[in-house]
Structure formats: C-alpha cells, structure tokens
Amino acid sequence: MKIVVPCLKILVAVLLGHALNERAISKERWLQESGYGLMFHYEAFKSHTPESYNRAIDSFNVNHFVESVQSTKAGHIIFVIGQHWGKYCAPNSAYEKFLGVDTGEWTSNRDLIMEIGKGLAERKIRLIIYMTARAPMRHYKIIKALGDTLPSINGKPAGNKIDPMSHPKKVKGFRRSENQAPNPIFLKNWGEVCGEWSRRYGKLISGWWFDGYKMEMKDSYESLKKEAHNIDTWIDAVRSGNPEAELAFNAGAHPILSLCTRGKLCPYQTFTSGENHNFNERTKKGFGKPLTPTNFPAPNGVVWHLLLPAGKGWGAGDQLRFKVQTLKERIDVINAEGGAITFDVPISSDGKIPEKILQGFQELGTYKGQLNDGVKSFLD
Predict the structure, then answer these.
(1) Position with higher pLDDT, 217 vs 166
(2) What CATH number is given to the structural domain containing 222?
(3) Average pLDDT for the chain
(4) 225 lies in a domain?
(5) Helix (H) / strand (E) containing 39
C-alpha cells in the first residue's frame, strides 16, 4: 500500500496535468481567447452617390465607436470594408486604377479602417476585415474591369443588360460570377487590391473574413495552380502585411459549409466563417442540434467560429433578438469547447450602435470572465 498510494498520486497529477495541457492547447489561438466579438455591416446595404458615401464616412465618430465596443468587453470585431455594391470605406490606388477613377468615387477619401484599427489596437481589441472573395457582383462594369469571370447564361457571357445578381429561377441557365471558377487575371488583380490594404495596415488587421468563396472557387483550386496567377497568388498578397492573419472563407449559411464539417473550403483557412441565423441547426422540422464545436466539429487546425445576427437581420434591427441569459448560456458552451462567436450588430452612418443592443452587450460583458474561463458555468 505504501507503494500504491504514491503511484496513485502520481497518476492523478499526470492526468490533471494532461487535462490542463489539453485546455491550454484548446485556447492557444487569440480568436479562442477572444470569447465573443461584434460584426458591423457598415453602409453595406445602401446605394450611395460618391458625395453621400463620403459624407457618411466623414460623419463616423471613431472614438465614440471604439469606446462603445470596449464597453461590451468584445475581444474582436469584424468590420465590412465594402461589399457587393462596390464602394469601400478606405482609399485603394489599385482598385481605383482598375476602375479608372479617382479616390473618393468608389473608395472613400477618409481612411476609416486605419483610424478604427488604431483605436481598437490601443484598447487591445482585434480587427478582422470583411471582404468579398470575388469582384463586387452588383456591377457588371466592375466585374469586367477587375477581370473576374463574367455572369453567364448556358456557358456564354450574359452581357450587361442582365442583372449580374440574377438567379437561374429568374433567368434559365444563368450563373453569377461567384458560381463559376475565377479567372487567373482576376486573382492577380484582387491580390493587388487586398495586398495594398494588407501592407498599409500591417498587424492592425488580425484576420480576414472572405464572403462568396463558393464551391466553384474551392473546386478550382488545384486546376488553377498551373496558372501563373492563382488562389495562392491572391492569398500571398492578403497576408503580405501580416503573415499571421487568421483567414475565413464563406460559402453559405449552412453548418456543413460555414462550419466546414466536411473539410476546409480553402487550404489557407484558419477559422470557420460560421454564418448561420440561429444557435441551432435548422431542419425541415424546425430546429435541430445546438451549433457547438462538439456537435459540428471543424477540421483539424481550424478554429471553430459561429457568426449570427444579433438583431432582426444582418445589419438590421434596434434591439437584441436573444435574451442576455441565452447569450450567456450559448457563449459559455462554445467557449468551453474551444470555439468563438461573433454577433452582427447594426450601426449608423456616424458609428452608433442602437442603444438597446449596446446595453444588452454591456450587460453580457459583466460576465466576460466566467464566459472565457474554459468552464461551463451557466448551464445546469
């Protein structure tokens, strides 16, 4: 017995050490330590003139915005630099060159991203940039100018008289640009655009979240490698300013795609896009299993990340559609299982978060320590 007891003590110590090491490993990436974050579709769904766009951006109060984010205890934000409308809230000489325009027409005069990045860095809050993987789909001329694959009908160019955002249900045989393999020249050009921002901002940007990386783009990866310019070319440029930047690629709002339960969408993927609409899987009968790292595991080496709208829709609403207690319980489980979560939050042109939504996240922030301690604290 004198021999057994010390052996048992040693065994317990080894097991405890192994458990602690497992927990340390599960939280070794900054996104896992972040706990939860906020996303902002800034001016993403509005049709602006150059004048109205610059007025909106000039009105943005960066100090008030970053102080509001800090008050929620969010560890990171995802900020939309631009979407399918083709306007971007930061200058970019490469983009302007391809379009043949001056700064202030399709890009803003003010470098809003630089200001936000610096403000967040001072408060140790990480910045992830939302960007599309393909050319802005709402403008045929921009798709063409950037060299991306043109919308097609039965394999032939659809022409500029067909809405580039159309659908096969509306136009038989129609395919959007993003539903076709990208052209090598586009990947070179898009690399120039993304690379300019990457080098300008450096480590102020901790990650990129690329939308519209559809299965057609995934499936073209190997065949494009024989080309002088390919997906590798583009990603090398994306990471030219920060080689350690985390990368997500979004193919759609479904657990199999957004949580990558069947493998990576791109070899460079380091966290899942996570786009969904609720905390549970949507099934034909209603809601299924909770969306957690255990129920829908991500590929090895990829941080499990979920993205949900906090309001009534993406960039919409003036109050939380979840109770704070629900947020606590779900975030607690996701964090304890080594995952992270981001909530899309509406934002005004001048950078204000709706008061009721802000108050909800400020209340949530009072539990940040328990939510991020690796233990399930709020479930029975």
Answers:
(1) 217
(2) 3.20.20.80
(3) 91
(4) yes
(5) strand 36-40
